[in-house]
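Dear colleague,

Thank you for sharing your sequence with our group. We've completed the structure prediction you requested, and as agreed, I am returning the results in plain text so they can be pasted directly into your records. Please verify that the sequence below matches your submission; if there's any discrepancy, let me know and we will rerun it promptly.
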Amino acid sequence: MASVQKVNTSLPPGVEVRGNNVRIQFQWQRKRHRKTVANEATPSNIRFASELLSNVKRAIKRGEFDYETFFPNSKRSENDSNVYTFKDACDDYVDAKLSKLSPASASQYSNALSNVWQKIIDPATAFIDIDHATIAAAIGRHPWRSAKLYNNYLIPLRGVFDMQYRGEWTASNPMIGIENDKVQKKKPDPLSIKEREKILEHMRKHYPAPVHAYFLFAFSTGMRPEELIALRWSDIDFPKKEARVWRVRTFRGTDRETTKTDVERDVFLISHALVALKIMKPITCLGEDPHVFEHPVLRKPWHDERAQRDTYWRPTLTALGIRWRRPYCTRHTYATVALMQGVTPAFIAKQLGHSLQELLSTYAKWTAANKEANDREKRALESAFTMHG
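Please find the predicted structure tokens below.
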């Protein structure tokens, strides 16, 4: 038997062309049916098939569907389990994205679709039978760990339906109305200068030199963890005292030639950053284009940030009695310390790879002028509520 053509993205969902025949597929009485409705794949016949399918599905939902009325010349036994399923659509989306996404992102999308969405929406469900209510009910039944995680999982699901519902069929996309949850943006939570120095001193005394050098460089450049672990010696320009940031190391342990904002930048290296590089140079500056930082025990580039966080960062904060922050706060600490010392926001924005507007919206209260004004207002407020004899 000839294989059935999968849903073509130029066709309305549920309508397919096999040879020169136009067919529709639908689910009724727990069975999947595929019916040939025209013997020539013309635009008018495809529109007719789409309208007929819409009428069939409406009748089924109302409980008014009569098989013989819609298909008087066909036998009811004509059904086929080989329909285009939700799993088929998910697989096609991942295949279409493989060449456009990094291996790590493609893996994340594939995992989200197979391990989350195909657990809460039956993967064998005919794709054309998945409507807005089906998706909304599935989402409502699932216990999402966080709004941010839920929003991330929606990205590939939207992609699956967007790939199938295109052109004039866009308005029929059942994902329309499925909104992201609101995520409260967390404010930066930097360390104080004193806390920073305690952490670095503890690491210098208790851990291998590459650990101390890694965090010294992080505090001194404001680079993101995924940028730090992707940094190579060929990215360092010692005469200019700059590091070229243009790639990241993903959670899969592979380097991707882009940054979070898809814009490369040159980061000026202060003396502390150069000290960190001096520590690392005799340890890692060998071989063909090696990474600057590596695991001190495995002697390999850091796979991701978990090893630094769980093996070195967390125990250090615990030992010093410092309130928990993620290692990412080295970036926040760099930005806030610089701004409070009067470094211009435009320069810090360039260092961090932010726009000036984004930097000011994130770190406005730490600018030198704002800090002075805030301190003045706090003193005035304290004075206003002080009891005078």
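Summary note from our side: The longest strand covers residues 21-28.

Kind regards,
the structure core
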